[in-house]
Design brief:
mainly alpha, two-stranded antiparallel ribbon, disordered N terminus
Length: about 160
């Protein structure tokens, strides 16, 4: 296999903000993607059950790895290691302790995850479908009697 064909075999189309992007998978050495999936599933339930998650995750990890220091990478790696070996019931407490110890890092970690996850095409489709399936509430400021008066008087109609 030539170098070009090997590179193409590792490439996949990623979507960020609805635009296709090319990304090389399995190039992340800072974090284990299966361990970060555990964290993501705890922070956004159902996050890893989407088709676009596998495309989003490497891009998210690459972005994260470029924004943080080595000490922060070590803190995240320690959290991921603890989460991977912990029972699922004790994971929220581990994450809460990490948030208490590293509030700024947790805010960045969680904020980037929210941005990446909800910008995927699949998440946007699910959000729109959910919003469109919900019942429509009438506006508290809308008065049908006023509308009837506007229609009856033809208010706002241009008069010549």
């Amino acid at each position: 296999m030539t170098t070009t064909s090997a590179l193409k075999s590792r490439m996949k189309i990623l979507y960020q903000n609805g635009k296709p992007m090319t990304g090389i998978h399995n190039q992340i050495t800072d974090f284990n993607t299966s361990d970060i999936a555990i964290l993501h599933a705890e922070l956004i339930p159902g996050c890893t059950n989407t088709d676009s998650y596998t495309a989003m995750s490497p891009s998210y990890l690459n972005e994260l790895a470029t924004k943080i220091s080595d000490a922060e990478k070590d803190a995240i790696s320690a959290l991921l290691e603890a989460l991977s070996s912990a029972a699922s019931g004790s994971r929220p407490a581990l994450i809460a302790a990490f948030e208490a110890d590293h509030p700024a890092l947790f805010k960045r970690l969680y904020g980037d995850l929210i941005t990446f996850f909800y910008s995927t095409e699949e998440a946007q489709k699910r959000i729109h479908a959910l919003a469109n399936a919900a019942p429509r509430e009438a506006s508290a400021n809308f008065d049908p009697a006023l509308l009837d008066a506007v229609i009856a008087n033809q208010s706002g109609k241009r008069r010549l």
